[in-house]
Amino acid sequence: MVGVLADNPPMVFRDADTKFVGYDVDVLQEVGRRIGKTMQFKVINWDQKTEELNGKQIDVIASGLSITEERKKIYAFTDPVVQKYTQMLIVNTASPIKARDDLGGKTVCVMEGASAGELVQDFRSASGQTAKVQTAPTMEGCLIQLTAGETDSAVMDGVTCEYYIKHNPGQFRIVPGALSKRQTAFALRLEDRALLGTFNDALKAMEADGTMKRLRERWLGDIN
Predict the structure, then answer these.
(1) What is the pTM of this model?
(2) What is the DSSP string of 140-189?
(3) Residues with Cβ within 8 Å of residue 99, at least 6 apart in sequence
(4) Residues 175-204 pLDDT 10s
């Protein structure tokens, strides 16, 4: 069982028929085919992902999960599936915010349980005002707050920002400059070392035969 977000395009999201699609979905389904396991997907509360994993409600965490030093202490990460995964600021098109330094004293929405929360704490204006963090349970929730004027900006994965901008023309824009660049991977329980090795063997084979390159080009474009 794979724990995912339902609103994390193009990594994991639902199509018009409510079927899970996206880069992580395709990669995991191909891994499953190669190791003889069926991949089932379950929408989880991102803030509870660790509890879901360790409680064996799920066996894998997906949805563009960034590798961080803190997370390495609690998860067994597979080999990276995206090498350069950025986090960006998204604002309404008419917003006066042009750069990160404009966020001093402003509000920034971050999804609950997302690694972006630590980045926002460093936002401050020349006068020393810091940004104010507010949260939403989903990425889409942050966009709803942004559209309603309840927050001044949101921090989201760069590819997700681009997806929502493309599908909501004229509504949003990205503030220039990546806030972070990280790798993403799938997370397993620390004790599941044998399964981790099986996953990594499949991922290495997929890199070698061009499957990963094809899936990245399909879903992520220029991201490698």
Answers:
(1) 0.86
(2) HHHHHHHHTTSSSEEEEEHHHHHHHHHHSTTTEEEEEEEEEEEEE--EE-
(3) 175, 176, 177
(4) 998 888 889 999 999 999 999 999 999 999
